[in-house]
């Protein structure tokens, strides 16, 4: 079930996207009060934007624009909105989105394609271990996608390992949708309750929220830990509310596949110019086929690397590697640029560490200071030394390490209203990006 456009040549895919882009520009100019003003304000004659290369002439849309002028982005009357969602809002004010009936169809198509990419078929049953309510788009997208594909879905929701296992035994799902670190909790529960995980019906998990791979597509510590105990396939997906689109891995697991019928992808440097092929930069997207709230050149804030060689699965579309980090969380440390995920990966390597949180602050001389607060049941001199050595060897930085109680870290990690655990606190006055 690969859409024909995804198997076409790169030139054909580009021409197809350019045709869609021209339609989008006309639609925005007619229906979006934000973009209508944007085009006028920046003297943009949309009839001169015909190629993907012409896009650079339109200034990018930022999260700030979305927050400030949220309702101006709506292209339809409220009466046409079926579903209301908000973005996660981990930084700043959350943005609200509306979806029309047609947008829900688009979302269903997107997710069905993404499931199919990860080899899920109509004969599969999926257990959903994420939230479907709380104005959250992803859970609903999974439900709609499974329905469109004809697969079964069990909406268990987040957490509660006991209920998850009960459901696995009762309904025999073949795939799980989960945050990878939660899979570790499931393994732990199974081990404590004499459940043989490798005899369950589960053959794979579609993972969201946390990366599974290193930049060269080898397994990172987290997925190695899962796979050493539970012999299932782990598929990465990358998506966001703003994109309304997912990048899902195929069976060859070489990055998330781009669906050219749903979104235009650009990767830009710090000055908003396209990076050289294969270099990392900020992902900037233009949504296609969205009715209520389409976005043009939206800066996602995520640093990624694109891979463009054709994939063994037959798709000729671009693939996105694991997210390197959030642009806002970029840390400049003595001439080295690092992002928190690299540090998470390293900390996950230590079985002694129960939980942790990373704090970034400015020091007296204006550079970034990294403090890692660690909750461990047994603190030894040796652990501190091992951690420091590991950081110096792998990341060429030497952070300050503080041990506090596991409980205290949990309070810091789960602030009220947060949908996901916080792993990173930014106290810098002058932030990057
Ligand atoms: Zn592929």
Question: Concise description?
Answer:
The protein has 433 residues and is α/β, with parallel strands linked by helices. It has helices at 4-7, 10-31, 33-41, 63-68, 101-117, 137-149, 161-171, 180-192, 221-229, 340-347, 381-395, 406-413, and strands at residues 81-86, 96-100, 125-128, 152-155, 175-178, 204-207, 233-240, 245-249, 256-257, 263-268, 280-287, 298-307, 319-320, 325-326, 331-333, 336-338, 353-362, 368-376, 400-404, 424-426.
Descriptive overview:
The chain has 433 residues and is α/β, with parallel strands linked by helices. It is built from 12 helices and 20 strands. The chain has helices at 4-7, 10-31, 33-41, 63-68, 101-117, 137-149, 161-171, 180-192, 221-229, 340-347, 381-395, 406-413, and strands at residues 81-86, 96-100, 125-128, 152-155, 175-178, 204-207, 233-240, 245-249, 256-257, 263-268, 280-287, 298-307, 319-320, 325-326, 331-333, 336-338, 353-362, 368-376, 400-404, 424-426. β7 (233-240) and β8 form a beta hairpin. α2 crosses α3 and α8 packs parallel to α9. The longest helix is centred in the first third of the chain and has 22 residues, at 10-31. The protein is globular and about 65 Å long. The two termini are 40 Å apart. The mean pLDDT is 92. The site of zinc ion (ZN) has 6 residues, from loops.
């Amino acid at each position: 079930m690969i859409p024909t456009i995804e198997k076409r040549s790169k030139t054909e895919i580009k021409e197809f996207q350019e045709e869609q882009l021209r339609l989008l520009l006309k639609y925005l100019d007619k229906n979006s009060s934000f973009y209508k003003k944007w085009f006028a304000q920046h003297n943009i004659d949309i009839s001169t934007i015909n190629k993907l290369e012409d896009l650079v002439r339109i200034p990018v849309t930022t999260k700030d624009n979305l927050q400030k002028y949220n309702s101006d982005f709506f292209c339809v009357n409220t009466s046409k909105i079926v579903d209301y969602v908000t973005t996660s809002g981990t930084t700043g004010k959350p943005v609200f989105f509306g979806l029309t009936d047609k947008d829900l169809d688009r979302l269903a198509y997107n997710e069905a394609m993404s499931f199919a990419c990860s080899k899920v078929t109509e004969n599969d049953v999926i257990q959903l271990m994420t939230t479907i309510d709380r104005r959250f788009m992803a859970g609903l997208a999974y439900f709609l996608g499974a329905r469109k594909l004809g697969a079964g879905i069990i909406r268990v929701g987040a957490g509660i390992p006991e209920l998850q296992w009960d459901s696995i035994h009762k309904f025999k799902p073949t795939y799980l949708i989960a945050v990878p670190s939660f899979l570790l909790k499931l393994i732990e529960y199974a081990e404590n309750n004499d459940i043989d995980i490798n005899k369950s019906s589960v053959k794979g998990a579609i993972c969201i929220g946390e990366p599974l791979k290193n930049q060269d597509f080898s397994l990172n510590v987290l997925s190695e830990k899962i796979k050493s105990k539970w012999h299932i396939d782990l598929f990465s997906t990358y998506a966001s509310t703003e994109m309304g689109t997912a990048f899902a891995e195929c069976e060859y697991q070489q990055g998330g596949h781009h669906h050219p019928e749903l979104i235009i992808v650009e990767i830009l440097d710090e000055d908003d110019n396209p990076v050289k092929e294969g270099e990392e930069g900020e992902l900037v997207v233009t949504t296609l086929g969205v009715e209520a709230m389409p976005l043009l050149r939206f800066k996602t804030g995520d640093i990624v690397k694109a891979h463009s060689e054709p994939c063994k699965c037959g798709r000729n579309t671009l693939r996105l590697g694991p997210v390197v980090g959030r642009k806002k969380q970029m840390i400049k440390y003595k001439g080295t640029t690092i992002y928190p995920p690299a540090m998470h990966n390293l900390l996950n390597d230590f079985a002694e560490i129960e939980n942790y949180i990373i704090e970034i602050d400015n020091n007296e001389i204006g550079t970034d200071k990294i403090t890692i607060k660690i909750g461990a049941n047994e603190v030894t001199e040796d652990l501190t030394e091992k951690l420091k050595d590991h950081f110096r060897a792998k990341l060429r930085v030497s952070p300050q390490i503080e041990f506090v109680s596991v409980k205290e870290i949990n309070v810091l990690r789960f602030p009220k209203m947060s949908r996901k655990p916080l792993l990173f606190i930014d106290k810098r006055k002058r932030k990057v990006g």
